[in-house]
Specification:
147 residues; alpha/beta; six-stranded mixed sheet
């Protein structure tokens, strides 16, 4: 009886991990009043614990969109058009990989979100950090252009 319960538990656990390995999400939202094309300068605020350089990947992607971008842990004294914040989640499956990335473009005056995007990929469909950033930022700008 105990062995049967252990086998059932093992199958449930394997099934759970198989399902989480297939997770794929790519979403974006842009405030209807926001016009991202007028945002020419942005500051990507680095998470102090981020030792993987995700802030730099985001900054470089925004630069490819024609935005002048600075990044760091402390907010600069200079004026900028938007503040960019992010949250990254990493998982272990043989190697560490980025499981989820959320990016928010905010009004620097009051921190109100102007646009946001999220990408989530399980271990079976994992993306590199660059691909996750590309997916999020491209979706935000695509959503902005369609408004």
């Amino acid at each position: 009886m105990k062995k049967l319960v252990s086998i059932k538990a093992a199958f449930l656990l394997v099934g759970f991990f198989m399902l989480t390995g297939c997770v794929n999400v790519a979403t974006s939202q842009v405030d209807p009043s926001a016009n991202l094309s007028v945002l020419k300068t942005m500051y990507v605020k680095q998470i102090p614990e981020d030792k993987r350089g995700v802030n730099e990947i985001i900054a470089n992607k925004l630069r490819s969109k024609g935005v002048k971008v600075t990044t760091g842990v402390e907010e600069p004294k200079a004026v900028y058009d938007a503040l960019v914040t992010y949250a990254d989640k990493w998982m272990w499956d043989i190697t560490m990989y980025m499981f989820e990335l959320s990016v928010v473009i905010r009004d620097p005056k009051d921190q109100v979100p102007l646009a946001s995007g999220r990408s989530k990929h399980g271990s079976l469909t994992r993306y590199s950090p660059q691909e996750m950033v590309d997916e999020v930022i491209d979706n935000i700008y695509k959503d902005s252009a369609s408004k």
